[in-house]
Amino acid sequence: MTPVQIKICGVTNPTDAKACVKLGAQMIGLNFYPQSPRCIQPNMARQIAETLPANIRAVGIFVDGNAEQIRRTANTAKVRCVQLHGNFSPETARELASEFHVIRAFSTHAGFRAEDVSLFPDCDVLIDAHHPDLRGGTGQTCNWPSARATLAFARFLILSGGLNAQNVGRAIKAVTPHAVDVCSGVEKAAGVKDHRAIEHFVAAVRRTERVADASSLQ
Asked: Where does 5-216 sit in CATH, by number?
């Protein structure tokens, strides 16, 4: 199978960012949502982004807001990828996609419809668990069948929501995403990454790929 990319979200300092890269992450999530315990200021995000190799993507996490606010924060933080949660129209996403790589986040709430992601053809898609108050980092698992259904409509699917080393293999088998996103599943505390847990998470992803590849040859 094609290697699954790994995104580690809620990184708050350069030391953890460097560990994520060393252990095998391809994307680092930097949270700008003021109500998140993992929220960081743009200047700190810039310090983190500047430590990353050129082939590692820094992703700015935004909840609501307008294109100009996001553009200003992202440029200050030196991130070229933005992840949009909340009330963002296709038009706003399209505007931002002319300057940034855009990830549009959806939650598998009761009214979620997989076909709605097709309204955002300029964006990658992230599917997360629904929480009435929080935006990511809840530790709750999303609806995997709903996530899998979005594959028909998304150019690139990132699976999020309650993933950890124990369940990510099952999640990959159930959804077959292009990437997986982990936050609380590799933490000692909110915003403090557990490097051993990251190592175990990455190993679980790669082990699932090896098993799938071996099965395809039989």
From this structure: 3.20.20.70
